[in-house]
Design brief:
Layout lengths: L14 E2 L3 H7 L13 H17 L3 H14 L4 H19 L11 H35 L5 H5 L7 H10 L2 H24 L3 H14 L3 E6 L6 E6 L6 H15 L5 H10 L14 E2 L8 E2 L3 H4 L27 E2 L8 H18 L1
Parallel strand pairs: 4-5
Antiparallel strand pairs: 1-6, 2-3
Helix pairs in contact: 2-5, 3-4, 3-5, 4-5, 5-8, 7-8, 8-10
């Protein structure tokens, strides 16, 4: 089987990536051999990329849209579509905080802290990844590669050999895995580890995770209006390696031959508003007066202004392959990933409960 994920192949076992020796070799630290000085055209290009990143990083809606637009032009970069769908879920969590599910459960201050946490993680990943995507687009069009631009855009040194390998092999699986590792290690070192020190936030996160499935990532698929849901739940959110494994499983689910094309059709047809009405309008509504559905507001109606804390340094990779080598050997099978029936039971109970209160 080719290393490229075959869309017509049933996924029922681990997908091999690299032999141990190759994984160790690709993880060796490298030094940037490009000059520190900027040439005038380089400076202009970098400023343009930074400006485009800032514009796209306005909020969850703009980030999610940019990922999908990029994937439409460059479908070989599987990570862009995965990022689009996961970013949709981040938006759902943001609006859940003000909707029927959580607004009466969480204190207002906790709601605001959770939103800030979700927004900061979502924005940090975009700020790091989107310049890489723009560089790839430029390299693809010109056929020449200035790898030093990665470090000038403050991208971790971890990513350089994987971009180099992708241009040689076209291995979408390996590049996607590297980007998953990079994004999770980045937010672990810059954001998650600090936020997990807030005991109140951590307590609420585990409560929501256990009782409401707050960390379930859902991919709508099938035909409207009765869309089904595929996905997985990330348990142990405070464990970066658990998040990496979950990210790899989600990748395989999203590119499963039964899921990918219809999930892409959903993404192209349904503009992301961050309301769960986008995928299940018979269950959720962005109208707060509706009594037959759960209230799931649009992002612009409940979180109009995003405020984020400054980011610390981005470089997380210290040249030690032992911590992440295992993640480059294979992608695990996703197991059972159809969540439709379970979630329908859950929301039916919630709707009945809400109706009694009215």
């Amino acid at each position: 089987m080719s290393r490229k994920m075959a869309r017509g192949t049933v996924i029922n076992g681990s997908l091999p990536l690299l032999p141990v020796q190759e994984a160790e070799a690709i993880l060796q630290p490298w030094e940037d051999d490009q000059p520190i000085l900027f040439f005038s055209d380089e400076r202009e290009r970098l400023q343009h990329m930074k400006g485009q990143t800032t514009n796209g990083n306005r909020d969850n809606l703009t980030r999610t849209s940019r990922y999908l637009n990029f994937y439409r032009k460059h479908p070989e970069i599987h990570w862009a579509f995965l990022a689009h769908m996961v970013s949709r879920n981040a938006g759902y969590y943001m609006t859940d905080l003000r909707g029927s599910l959580l607004s009466n459960v969480l204190p207002k201050g906790v709601q605001e802290n959770f939103f800030s946490f979700l927004e900061t993680c979502n924005a940090a990943i975009f700020e790091d990844a989107y310049p890489q995507l723009m560089l790839y687009e430029e390299w693809k069009e010109k056929g020449s590669f200035n790898w030093g631009l990665l470090s000038k855009l403050q991208v971790s040194s971890f990513m350089k050999p994987f971009w180099q390998a992708f241009f040689k092999s076209g291995d979408s699986n390996l590049l996607t895995t590297a980007l998953i590792i990079n994004e999770q290690m980045l937010i672990e070192n810059r954001i998650v580890s600090q936020w997990m020190e807030q005991k109140e936030l951590t307590r609420w996160l585990f409560t929501l995770q256990d009782s409401l499935g707050f960390t379930s990532i859902l991919f709508p698929y099938g035909e409207a209006p009765s869309l089904s849901l595929a996905g997985d739940t990330i348990y142990g959110f405070d464990d970066v390696h658990a998040r990496i494994v979950a990210g790899k499983k989600l990748y395989r689910i999203l590119f499963h031959p039964h899921i990918h094309q219809s999930s892409l059709r959903f993404a192209l047809k349904r503009r992301h508003t961050a309301s769960r009405q986008d995928y299940w309008p018979r269950v959720y509504s962005n109208d707060p007066t509706s009594i037959r559905t759960l209230y799931s507001p649009r992002l612009v109606d409940v979180w109009p202004d995003a405020t984020r804390l400054p980011y610390p340094s981005r470089e997380w990779y210290k040249g030690d392959p032992s911590e992440i080598k295992e993640h480059l050997l294979s992608i695990p099978p996703p197991g059972s990933f159809t969540l439709t029936k379970r979630l329908k039971r859950t929301v039916s109970g919630l709707i009945k409960s809400a109706s009694k209160k009215h």
